[in-house]
Amino acid sequence: MEFELNRLSDYSNEALIAELKRVAALVPSGPITRLVFDKHSRASASTVMKRFGGWRQALEAAGLGARYSGQHVSDRMRSQPGRCITREQAIEELRRVAEKLERKEITVEDFNAHASFSVATVRSIFNTWSKALSAPV
User: Fold this and answer.
1) Is 0.70 topped by the overall pTM?
2) SS (H, E, C) the chain
3) FRET pair for 113, CA 20 to 30 Å: which of 26, 28, 51, 76?
């Protein structure tokens, strides 16, 4: 049995691409996810992602873009600046959804189904859903 190192001795772009291709040969079908890569690789997926700017970009650099399983992010999506929702905007959206549904209180499911941003945004502003619902108007 031949001895093989657990980790790469060289972490150059070329070595990381070679490692991506080696793992692809070990797993000849299906997507190459970060989990699959970490299971078979001698380098971590996070190292590869940092080097190439993302998992999809790393797979594409290795000629394995067709084996990417994640969501495609369009140039349009990438070019949009992140929305910064204020406390006031969150309260207004809570009101708008409640009025639309003709309810005094709404559920997380109601909000996610009818709001222009997710309940996660509201929670990040108020810490909890309950605090958001009881926020002073």
Assistant:
1) no
2) CCCCCCCCCCCCHHHHHHHHHHHHHHCCCCCCCHHHHHHHCCCCHHHHHHHHCCHHHHHHHCCCHHHCCCCCCCHHHHHCCCCCCCHHHHHHHHHHHHHHHCCCCCCHHHHHHHCCCCHHHHHHHHCCHHHHHCCCC
3) 76
For residue 79, CA distances in Å to 50, 65, 69, 108 come to 20, 21, 22, 29
Tokens of 63: 């000629």
Q: Distance between CA 70 and CA 78 in Å, rounded?
A: 15
Task: For residue 7, give the amino acid letter.
Answer: R
Q: Which two tokens stand for residue 31?
A: 């997507």
Query: What is the per-residue pLDDT across 2-29, written as a single tens digit (0 to 9) for each?
Result: 656 688 889 999 999 999 999 999 999 9
